[in-house]
Amino acid sequence: MRVAVVGAGVSGLAATKCCLDEGLEPTCFEQSQDIGGLWRYTELIETGRPSLYPSVISNTSKEMSAFSDFPFPEHFPVFLPNALLLDYLRRYTEHFSLREHIRFGSTVVSIHKHPDFATTGQWDVVTEAGGKQTSHVFDAVMVCSGNFSEPSLPLQCFPGIERFRGQYFHSRQYKHPDVFQGKRVLVVGMGNSGVDIAVEASRVAAKVMISTTRGAWLLSRVFEHGYPWDMILNTRLMSLIKTNLPGPLSWWLINYKVNQWFNHENYGLQPENSWRVREPVLNDELPSYILTGRITIKPGVKEFKDNSVLFHNCPEEEPIDIVVFCTGYTISFPFLKESVVRVENKHASLYKYVFPPQLQKPTLAVLGLIKPLGAIMPIAEMQARWVSRVFKGLCQLPPQAVMEKEVNEKKKNQIQWFGLTFDEVLKTEWLVYLDTLASFIGAKPSVLGLLCTDPRLALTIFFGPCSPYQYRLGGPGRWQGARQAILTQWDRVLKPTRTRVPAGSSSSFLSLLTVVGFLLLLAAVIFGFL
């Protein structure tokens, strides 16, 4: 079975590898001359490719971001600069011999249903390389082109911008902070990029403001006792709490935990309707920069003037020289007909965020088009594992009516947050989503089963971080090194940081986790949560 993979970023590499695992024949088309996608920095902003600034660091820790059968080197830092993450992707590519299946410099021009699609499910794929177009026929397609290439710049939402005499641009165009030297800067939007850019700008600018309509919760990479945030929050225990307590109560607990770092209301960051979940912003420096006056948080923009801006509920105009719009990206598949993947209000209609439900044959899938509170790499890999088995006929999708009903339900109560919908955040709780897809392929770990056969491992995967290796303990693609990788995950976290160990020191916190975790695991079993 021949499979076309569009893009050689994180999702495309995982898709290629998973196809090979299932005995399929993948051909990965990458328009640039190298792998890496979003994580490959280039000074030049290339059309159709993601663009990042050189200071970008991963928001998720290496243990939670790893592919499930390929841990990061232990000497790598806990959170990865973009160059090291690209290095990891290169190691992954070489280890699993993926490069020979990638055609570099090949742009996918169009993907159409083959004339006999209703019976074969095949696709006509047209690619272009060196100015020459070539037609291919593939049995299936994995779209791994990402959603960070086409910026969303809704200027119509900002009255007066047409008469603003200063400079403005989308965050995709940002590379270095020297453009802000001595300037008065306004950053519109409070996502991760917006806060990163504001922090960098404040080191050289005369003044920096962040405009946010609804506020945001802020998390630090450094969480309780100095451990990575996602290794503390993304655990099976925390997931049980979030999914079994009444919604308002579980989110009250989370809001309380977030506010333990600092009171968001005192810093102008408190989200409106804070009982609703919204994607938190990951930044370690913003609170201190607000505290020292380097950055000021402002309400939403009411109107732009020639050389100033007026905010809602603020009578005074603020003079500005540069505006950076951090307003997200538009989902776009220029090589596909709209009838194949329907996009409405920046939301793609996909079953489990992967399969177009209306297709007669499930031979096209979209990977990585999801925004969970957690690492994207394990999710893209799990999607690829599921998709490759669907393509092979080993997993079946529900009837079309069932899939379309679920997709339509997700469209209800959508609230737009600059291209990130309320639905996408609420419905893609990281661990629950991974478990759901893992159950489809028979790779979801059984805590109760392990409690009888391997209590130490059961305790670790229940109370400890839900690292991706858990999904290689059994089922298809089982990896012999999964158990050891899980039991040594904290060693790899501490390796690059414990570079000086005082005499008599001990890992008392991890010992406490073990004891408390065992008691909580027993309680969960008694009350039937597992």
Keywords summarizing the entry:
18 helices; 530 residues; alpha/beta; 16% strand; 2 domains; FAD/NAD(P)-binding domain
Folded structure, characterized:
This protein has 530 residues and is of the alpha/beta class. It is built from 18 helices and 22 strands. It has helices at residues 10-21, 62-65, 82-95, 117-120, 192-201, 229-233, 236-244, 247-258, 286-291, 376-392, 400-411, 422-426, 430-441, 447-453, 455-463, 482-487, 489-494, 508-526; strands at residues 2-6, 25-30, 102-104, 107-113, 123-129, 132-138, 140-143, 167-170, 184-188, 207-211, 218-219, 281-282, 295-298, 301-304, 308-311, 318-319, 322-325, 343-344, 347-348, 364-366, 416-417, 420-421. A five-stranded parallel beta sheet has the order 3-2-1-7-20, with helices on one face. Helix 14 runs antiparallel to helix 15. It is globular, with a radius of gyration of 24 Å. It starts with a strand and ends with a helix. Belongs to the FMO family. The chain crosses the membrane at residues 509-529. Pfam families: FMO-like. It comes from Geospiza fortis (Medium ground-finch).
Return the structural class: alpha/beta
Alpha carbon gap, first and last residue: 39 Å
Number of domain modules:
2
Any guess at the CATH architecture of the largest domain?
3-Layer(bba) Sandwich
The share of residues in extended strands comes to: 15-25%
Mean pLDDT: 90
The CATH homologous superfamily name of the largest domain equals FAD/NAD(P)-binding domain
What sort of overall outline do the alpha carbons produce when their principal axes are compared?
A: globular
The helix tally amounts to 18
